[in-house]
Specification:
Helix content: over 70%
Mean pLDDT: 77
Number of strands: 0
Order of helices and strands: HHHHH
Protein name: C-type cytochrome biogenesis protein CcmI
Oligomer: single chain
Largest sheet: none
Length: 128
């Protein structure tokens, strides 16, 4: 009788432990979107960090104006691509629309990234 109980308990443990694996195979569509969204959000934060570091390097004199403009333009274009990919995945219905903001002086890419950054902050803000 005791070996049957041990086998039953082990079977139950294996079943419980393997549940995430079984669920990942069954509901892969939603999980893939969530994984892709998480990857894009991480890429967005990394790109924003790159842009801030680039601006710091420019302010401290490590980059010339010409080099800064070229690198800044490239990084902001990459950020725009990431934000568009996030938009393509779809926004949550619970997220409020981003407040309108006047475009800062500069080229169109800078204005778009800054506006998208505000929208991303509104989406990422913790809910009360």
């Amino acid at each position: 009788m005791e070996p049957l109980i041990v086998i039953a308990v082990l079977g139950l443990v294996v079943w419980v432990v393997s549940a995430p694996i079984r669920n990942a195979r069954a509901g892969g569509g939603e999980d893939r979107v969530a994984v892709e969204r998480d990857g894009l959000l991480a890429a967005k934060e990394a790109k924003y960090r790159e842009i801030r570091e680039l601006e710091l390097d420019h302010r401290t004199g490590k980059l010339s104006d010409e080099d800064f403009r070229a690198q800044d333009r490239a990084r902001r274009a990459e950020a725009i691509e990431i934000l568009r990919a996030l938009d393509d995945l779809g926004a949550d219905d619970d997220d409020p629309p981003a407040p309108a903001r006047a475009a800062p002086a500069g080229d169109a890419a800078t204005a778009e990234v800054d506006a998208d950054a505000d929208a991303a902050q509104a989406v990422d803000a913790p809910r009360a």
